[in-house]
């Protein structure tokens, strides 16, 4: 239950102590109210690590199908979940699941979802990363009323495979509603992906990773800008779980569904991870790495080969971002893999995964500056090009079908941001003036991280649908504070 409307008046302000709260060049949110972590509530150190199994997310099943379309009914409602052992926590859910279920979709086959709101606040359901008509995009002011309000969203799926996800987008309240659990997974597949022979079925596992804070009664405690005190790490809705695997290859689709925390995921023994895809699906070729960094909203599609470990091995997946003073060691722990058996494995990771669409010539260039208040007075605000979000204002007018290059700069001295554009997948051309030619940012993206002072250059083609869409920082608290703007494709 959302018990308070902290919002902007919560004192979401970055103080000068923020400089001590940033690690890894500004990957962490900058804004605890003081440099010391709050100790009230459940002590993360008291929670047994790797004592409970990480659940697999359930599949959402259609209530009807036609030759062209799958139809779903979903109810957003409060439920209880044992997130921390020994406590039942009230959470926001899609159909009673925390996190929500997985909707399996196919490119070229339409999906229609009727959402019913039984929560205590209006919501707007955004399918993050989807190429959809503006009427089904989940705009910040396109709200579903409480007490049984409904809205039907149509997803044409006229895009290639992608790792998409649902979340609330109601302006000013999305931060708290998402923190309380209103997220779900949408896996869009196509023939390009399925014919490669990658690990599939039970060996293809979506994992939603986030942080949380709990009060003494085991309830989620929400305050804006409360990064330093969200010290309990959840994987698929459980605190520090374990996951049993066979000694073979697995595909994990990692989703960062946290409000503010970034993760750099790595195996504790430093062994390689094969990155095969990101937000918008597969890379052109596999990329070998020892860690994968995800800011809020980003996704990573990886293959981990457990055949190199003997049965009985226990192996941590860790967050290797350096932590600020006052953060406990627990936030570096994510989940544990347990190799419990052998298994046959006919899956492969081909040397070539897909052919990425060519980059057409760009005819328009634009610049965007992201900035939030870093000093008192309270409350703090956040801006794009010096303006807070106003749903009555169109900030950028785009001609349908044009290809544009956007230069986006984080103008803050300490605070990190990231940048998400609705409607399109984009390509990252440059980071800090250096061309991006390989690795995690070489594929199709819809969200990109910017540390303090960084600049990225992005290219996108604005076709498919006309209408009004938003672009914003995907650190939910920053968007709630005003770091969002509107574009109209005409």
Structure description:
Pfam families: Cu-oxidase, Cu-oxidase_2, Cu-oxidase_3. One of its GO terms (molecular function) is oxidoreductase activity. This is Multicopper oxidase with three cupredoxin domains (Includes cell division protein FtsP and spore coat protein CotA). It comes from Actinacidiphila paucisporea. With 490 residues, the chain is mostly beta strands. It has three domains: 21-47 and 197-341, Immunoglobulin-like (Sandwich); 64-190, Sandwich (Immunoglobulin-like), CATH 2.60.40; 364-489, Cupredoxins -  blue copper proteins (Immunoglobulin-like, Sandwich). 3% of the residues lie in helices and 39% in strands. The chain has three helices and 32 strands. It has helices spanning 174-179, 191-194, 476-480, and strands at 64-65, 69-81, 89-94, 102-106, 110-117, 125-128, 149-155, 162-168, 183-189, 204-212, 232-235, 238-239, 242-246, 249-256, 263-267, 273-278, 281-289, 292-294, 299-305, 314-319, 333-341, 364-372, 382-384, 396-398, 403-410, 417-421, 427-431, 434-435, 447-450, 455-461, 467-472, 484-489. A seven-stranded mixed beta sheet has the order 12-11-10-14-19-16-17, with no helix packed on it. Strands 23-22-25-30-27-28 form a six-stranded mixed beta sheet. Strand 16 and strand 17 form a beta hairpin. The longest helix has 6 residues, at 174-179. It is globular. Mean pLDDT is 91; it is low at 1-38.
């Amino acid at each position: 239950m959302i018990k308070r409307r902290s919002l902007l008046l919560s004192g979401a302000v970055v103080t000068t102590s923020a400089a001590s709260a940033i690690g890894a060049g500004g990957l962490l949110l900058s804004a605890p109210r003081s440099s010391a972590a709050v100790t009230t509530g459940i002590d993360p150190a008291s929670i047994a690590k790797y004592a409970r199994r990480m659940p697999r997310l359930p599949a959402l099943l259609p209530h009807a199908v036609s030759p062209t379309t799958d139809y779903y009914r979903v109810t957003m409602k409060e439920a209880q979940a044992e997130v921390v052992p020994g406590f039942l926590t009230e959470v926001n859910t899609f159909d009673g699941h925390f996190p929500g279920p997985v909707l399996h979709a196919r490119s070229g086959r339409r999906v229609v979802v009727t959402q019913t709101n039984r929560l205590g606040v209006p919501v707007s359901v955004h399918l993050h990363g989807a190429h959809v008509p503006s009427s089904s995009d989940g705009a910040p002011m396109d709200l579903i009323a409480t007490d049984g309000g409904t809205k039907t969203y149509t997803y044409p799926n006229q895009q290639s495979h992608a790792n998409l996800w649902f979340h609330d987008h109601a302006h000013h309240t999305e931060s708290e509603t998402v923190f309380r659990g209103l997220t779900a997974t949408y896996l869009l597949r196509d023939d390009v992906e399925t014919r490669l022979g990658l690990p599939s079925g039970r060996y293809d596992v979506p994992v939603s990773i986030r942080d949380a804070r709990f009060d003494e009664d085991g309830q989620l405690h929400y305050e804006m800008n409360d990064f330093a005190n969200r010290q309990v790490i959840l994987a698929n809705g459980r605190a520090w779980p374990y996951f049993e695997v066979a000694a073979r290859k697995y595909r994990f689709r990692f989703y960062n569904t946290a409000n503010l925390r970034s993760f750099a995921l790595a195996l504790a023994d430093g062994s390689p991870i094969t990155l095969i895809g990101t937000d918008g699906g597969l890379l052109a070729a596999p990329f070998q790495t020892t860690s994968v960094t995800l800011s809020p909203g980003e996704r990573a599609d990886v293959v981990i080969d457990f055949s190199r470990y003997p049965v009985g091995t226990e192996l941590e997946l860790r967050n290797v971002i350096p932590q600020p003073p006052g953060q406990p060691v627990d936030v570096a722990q994510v989940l544990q893999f347990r190799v419990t058996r052998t298994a046959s494995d006919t899956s492969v990771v081909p040397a070539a995964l897909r052919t990425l669409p060519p980059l057409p010539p760009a005819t328009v260039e634009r610049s965007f500056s992201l900035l939030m208040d870093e000093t008192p007075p309270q409350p703090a605000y956040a801006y794009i090009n010096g303006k807070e979000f106003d749903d009555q204002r169109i900030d950028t007018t785009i001609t349908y079908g044009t290809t544009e290059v956007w230069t986006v700069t984080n103008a803050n001295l300490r605070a990190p941001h990231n940048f998400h554009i609705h409607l399109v997948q984009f390509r990252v051309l440059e980071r800090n003036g250096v061309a991006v030619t390989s690795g995690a940012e070489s594929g199709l993206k819809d969200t990109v991280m910017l540390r303090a002072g960084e600049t990225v250059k992005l290219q996108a083609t604005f076709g498919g649908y006309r209408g009004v869409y938003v672009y914003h920082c995907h650190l939910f608290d920053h968007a709630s504070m005003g770091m969002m703007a509107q574009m109209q494709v005409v």
